[in-house]
Amino acid sequence: MAKEVNKEVFEVLPVPQAVAKFVVPSLASTLITIIYSLADTLFVGMLNNPSQLAGLTVAFPYYQFLNAFSSLWGVGTNSVMSRALGEKDYDRVSKASSHGFWGSLVFMAVVCVIFQILEKPLLYVAGASAQSYDSASVYMLIVFVIGGIPTVLSIVMSNLLRAEGHAKSASSGLMLGGLLNCILDPIFIFGADMGVAGAAVATLISNCVSLIFLIVVYIRIRETSYITLKPFPGGVSWKLIKDVILVGLPSGCLTVLGATGCIIQTSLYSLYGDAAVAGWGVVNRISFISIYTVHGVAQGVLPLIGYNYGAKNFKRVRSVNKCAFLITEILAWAIMILSLIFSAGIIKIFINDAATIEAGVQIMRKYMLCTPFMAIVLLVSTLCQAVGKWQYSLIMLAIRQLVFNIPITFLLNSLFAMKGVASGQPTTELICFIGALFVYHRCFYRAMNKEELLSKKVS
User: Fold this and answer.
1) Dist CA 356 CA 344 (whole Å)
2) Helix 354-367 and helix 343-350: axis angle, to 10°?
3) Residue 248 Cα to chain centre, angstroms
4) Does the keyword Cytoplasm apply (predicted)?
5) pTM (predicted TM-score)
6) Mean pLDDT for each consecutive 10-residue tract of the chain (459 residues)?
7) CB burial string 415-445: b at 16+ within 10 A, e below
8) Phi-psi region of 4 (alpha: psi -120 to 50; beta: other; left: phi over 0)
């Protein structure tokens, strides 16, 4: 059977409709992922034990490392595949899909062993106390060390499918895992009386089910797809692996740097007790609503941008970008306003402990001010990756975290204590927002204008 790509969606369908076709399933998947990320915190919080919630908060940044590795391989492979599809280089599409899948598997096998060896110092650096260490340790063992490979492979697999236009199937697999996690959490946490360990087991099972579902989807479409899971057809191509990693590196670094910043913030909040750490844990999860929303929009438009950039249809690329900015900012402002108005009620949903609620409200009303600015910074980063301009994205994100966020957070902590820690992110994002606008102009206007002129001269 002939292999085919839905060219009408990529090339002909009006931009708002094409964006909706990709972004709606991606946002639906993101919504489930948000619920997924909140579920563990919500159900563990119902134990009304700040130490267990603090343990989950301490371990969670390391779970974010799994998202980083997923982005490294998934976003990188998606971008390489999308641009190759636009260039009609179908052999490269197949090889990229295989290298992305098997490369991520080998990579994660090594990483899981390293994290198991370094578990104790990693958790104490993140702010674990004598009371919260056991909870953090068991969560990290089950979710990261045992469950790291299926977690990463499920997200990489969804990116392979999305690159070829199978947005609904890619999103359905992740949604299935998220819904299953919400069902299993109370069963293991309360029914089996496992506490934090129950949340970890539920997450592990859910990610395995997602991976199985996505592999079944691939098996059903493989006769008409350029995706292949045959290990490294034609041999290992280190150049292709390099291309995948370099394009995916900014997304991976974004999450690693974000997780590192979260570890530092958690460590600083630990100076003010387990209630502050638990309150920060809730705020951190709420902030993920905005992060995952931007991620959902960006992942949705990434194949459209990559394909049309590869086909040198720059007018369509710019139109897709405008739609992405509009959707992202509307959602970001809505999230910020709601979180500021209902901060106390939101914290109370997760844990009914007076000290934790008080600390959480103070943190939320400062921290969530970053949302509209952060949305633009993260979106610009992903748009740069979509067209292979990974250098812009990487430099911008490294400066954001290392030059601004970490030093500013330490400085404000020394000046204003806990409220200063919460103010570090908004201050950083406001500065980086200005830089992101400059990067976008340079990457999408100056660079594409030059390429358009070259294309006209060649033709």
Assistant:
1) 10
2) 130
3) 12
4) no
5) 0.70
6) 60 85 80 74 82 82 83 88 86 92 94 90 81 86 91 92 84 86 91 89 93 94 88 87 86 78 86 87 85 83 82 85 91 93 91 88 93 91 79 85 91 93 93 90 69 55
7) eeebebbbbbbbbbbbbbbebbeebbeebbe
8) beta
